[in-house]
Every structure is written in C-alpha cells, then in structure tokens.
Amino acid sequence: MECNFQKNHSLDARGSQEEAVENKQKKTNVALVTLAIFVATFMSAIEGTIVSTAMPTIIGNLNGIAIMNWVFSIYLLTSALMTPIYGKLSDMIGRKPVFIAGLLIFIIGSSLCGLSQSMGQLIAFRAVQGIGAGAIMPVTSTIIADIYPFEKRAKIMGLNGAAWGIAGILGPLLGGFIVDQWSWHWIFYINIPVGLAAVLLVSLFFHEDYTFEKKPVDYLGSFSLMGVLLSILYGIQVVGDNGRLSTESVSWFAAAALCSAVFLFAERRAADPIIPLGLFSSRTFVIQNTAAALVSGFLLGADIYIPMWMQGIKGLKAAMGGFAITPMSLTWMVGSFFASRFLLKHAVKHILAGSLAIIAASALLLGILPIATPFFVFLFITALIGLGMGLTITTTTVTVQNIVPREQIGIATSVNTLFRILGQTVMVSIYGIVLNNKMAQLIAGQKVSGTKITDEMMNQLINPLTAVNLDPTLLPTVRGILYAGIHSIFFYGFLIVLVAMAINAFDKEQKAN
C-alpha cells in the first residue's frame, strides 16, 4: 500500500490502528511503559548534553581538537547505520526485544566510554554506544504510536519532549559539575542505572499482542544501505582531514554511488525491503524528513559550539557552558505542546513555516554576534532554538507516522530518525572541516606576521583549566581565532535552515490527520 493522504486509506489505517491500540492497552501498563520510554529518552538526551558540555575538558585532557568531530560523528554514524535495521526488526519481531537489546548495548558502550584512556579508545567505544542508540530514538516513538491513538499521540510526544527537556536542563549542569569536581569519565557511568531502570520497566510491563509477520530478512538491502552511509560519511571525513578533495575521498564517494545502485536494485526486488521505496512516493513524507534532517544538523552545531564559545572564548567553567544551552530544553517542551495543538487545526506546511522561521532567526543571531556578547544573550537565543525545534521535530515525527499503515509505522519512524541522524552526522563533519580550515588559515597568517600560535595552544584554550597556562599576551589572539572558526560554523548553520524553509514551501497544504 502506498502512503498517501487519500481519505479511504486514512480511515482504514486509523481504524485498524485504534483497534490495535485499544487491545494493547488491555494488557500493557500504559503508564509504566510510558515512564520507561521517558526514562530511555532521558538517558539518551542527557548523554548528548553532557558530552557536549564535557568536550572542551576532554580535548584539553586528550589533546584532540583536530579529531574532536569523530567523537560525535562515529556515534551518529553507527546510530544511522543501525536505525533502519532496528526499525525493520521492530516490525518483524516486535518492539520489546529490539528496544531492550538497544538499551543493553547502549549501557555497555557507555561503560566502555567511561573507561577510555585515550581519544582513540573513546572514539571506538562511542561507536558501540551509537549502535545501541540506534534503537532508542525510533523505537520509543514507535511504541508511543502503538499504545496511543492519534489524538493523544502528539501530546505524549510533547511529554516525551519534557523528558528530553528535563535531561537538557540537568545534563549541562550535572555534566559541568562532574567535570569541574571529579573526572569527565563519570559522565558516561550515569547512563548505567538509568538504562537498567528502563530495561526493567519495559521487561515487566510492556506486552505486545500484535502478530508480527515472520518475513525474510533483506540482507542485500541492509548491507548495501550500510555501505552507502559508511562511504558517504567516511568520504566527508577524508575531505575534512585533507582539507580538499583527494583520490581517496573520490573513491569513497564512488563506492557510495555503487552501493546506492545495489540498494535500489535490492529494494525493488525484495519480498520485504528494509526501506520500502513506496514510502517516498509521498511528497509530504520526503519533505518532512528532509526538513527534520536539516534542522537537526543545525541543532548539533549549537549543542557543540555554544558551550565551546562559553569555555574557550569567554573563559567560563564547564557548568556555565552547559547552562548556556539549558533554555533550549525548557522551550522545546513548550514547542512540543503547541505542536500537538496546531497539528489538529493547521496544515503541516504552515506549522513548519513558522517553526523554521524561528530557528532561522536564532541561527542568524549566532552568526552575527560580536566576541564580547553578554551571556544572557545566548540564553535568549537558545530559548528560541528550543521553541523552534520543539515545534519542528514533533510535527515531522507525528506526520510521517500518520501517513503510513500501521505495519509500516516502525520503519517510517526509523526513516525519520535516520534522516535526522544523517543530517547531524553530515553537518558535524562539515563543521569540523570549517573549523579546522578556518583556524589553520588564521594560524598560518599569524606565523607570517611573526606570532607563534600552535595547534597545542588551541587545544589548551578550549579547556578553561588549561587555558590559564597560555601566554596572557597571546590569549586575545588565540581566542579571536577560535571565535572566527565558530562564527563560520553558525553561518553555515543559518544557510541549511534557509534550505529547509525553501523545501517546505513545496509541500501540500494539508493536515497531518
């Protein structure tokens, strides 16, 4: 069945789904399962905000500013590789076993990250953590779609955003406290008890009565898709490492093209494709996912580089760097709440037009702020970002779920998550290229003028605890170099939000329901 907005399809899909929801609620403790979802979301969210807050300290400790983006991109890469596979598995064998497996892998990865003694080890163990995270984001949304009807789903998505918001508030503050008082290794250990609590709740109180079909696994489609993603993302990393296109990077992009051809061949012929190509016959499905990918790419830039601005440029402690992005979590909840109301009354296109305009305004402000901008200005800007993101992500997620039949909700949600992760993965790689190239250019210019600025100095600057060891006469120059690099990043972030606004203009004027 192709996903579209025709009335007969909507009524059939909605009717069968409401009946399934009513049956599931008879056996499942909806309240406790919802709590488990919130706990898992909290764990995933607090991990992201804590790592962003702690990254300047990690860089100062392990001297890894040149490969900093790998800590984020490898996590996102493995998440992206596994997301569609988990989504398909959740449709085939059930949400519960997939969700629990993902949580356990995430906990193991977190434990290993906490034991890391080098940047190489941290990057490797973040890959394991990402494999587990690939199940958390899409399957939580799918379970919500399973146990709640459409009229309540957006509201629960908003409440799930509240769990994200609470984590967003506590994460930067807790992360800053841990880094300032103890060791950054402990930012990963806190995932262990939280994750185990979610596993326990889902194991005991979530009971699936839906009959999942045992279908052949699309191995060729799965591995070729992994090849596409791995080749593209690694090719971008190679470009960043070399500062230009090279034979190696072109080879990776050629491999991506070849894997894409194999993937399309496999999906057209598979009895049960990992990603049904019919999903993309809906213009709204494509536009919603693309918009989510682009704004997610901007969001990660704000999460990483605003704390870096606070610590590296303003010289504040890690706790204050995290506090700068705290308003984002509060207003994200507000945005999710209003999205649940707007979806019942307004066309999706119009909701996104407003939310993307808010995000674009915040991106523009970040791109033009002077180096001496007061701290409270960043609080205002991150509040705007959270409001716009809450509206956008809730709208796109609920919309793509509601335009497909129930048996495809899992994979549709996973595709939405995959797009968001890809947007973040590609953009964090691009941000790394932009930052490294800009700083290298300015450092080279300083050497010509006789001022000795080194990469080691840039590593020291990022961490306020090591920045005190820099020559005070060079400190303004070093901060100016970092400021120029971060400014360039936010300029590119503004451009991708504008692209999202342009794409949204081509959507149809229709409601999600």
What is the compact description of this entry?
This protein is mostly helical and 513 residues long. It has helices at residues 7-27, 30-62, 68-92, 95-114, 119-147, 150-181, 186-189, 191-205, 219-242, 247-269, 283-313, 318-323, 326-342, 348-368, 375-402, 409-448, 455-462, 464-467, 475-504. The chain is globular and about 70 Å long.
What would your notes on this structure say?
It is a single chain. The longest helix is centred in the C-terminal third of the chain and has 40 residues, at 409-448. The chain starts with 6 loop residues before the first helix and ends in a 9-residue tail after the last helix. Helices cover 80% and strands 0% of the residues. By secondary structure, the chain is an all-alpha fold. The radius of gyration is 22 Å and the shape is globular. The chain has helices at 7-27, 30-62, 68-92, 95-114, 119-147, 150-181, 186-189, 191-205, 219-242, 247-269, 283-313, 318-323, 326-342, 348-368, 375-402, 409-448, 455-462, 464-467, 475-504. α9 runs parallel beside α16 (409-448). It is built from 19 helices and no strands. It folds into 2 domains: 18-215 and 272-504, Growth Hormone, Chain: A; 216-271.
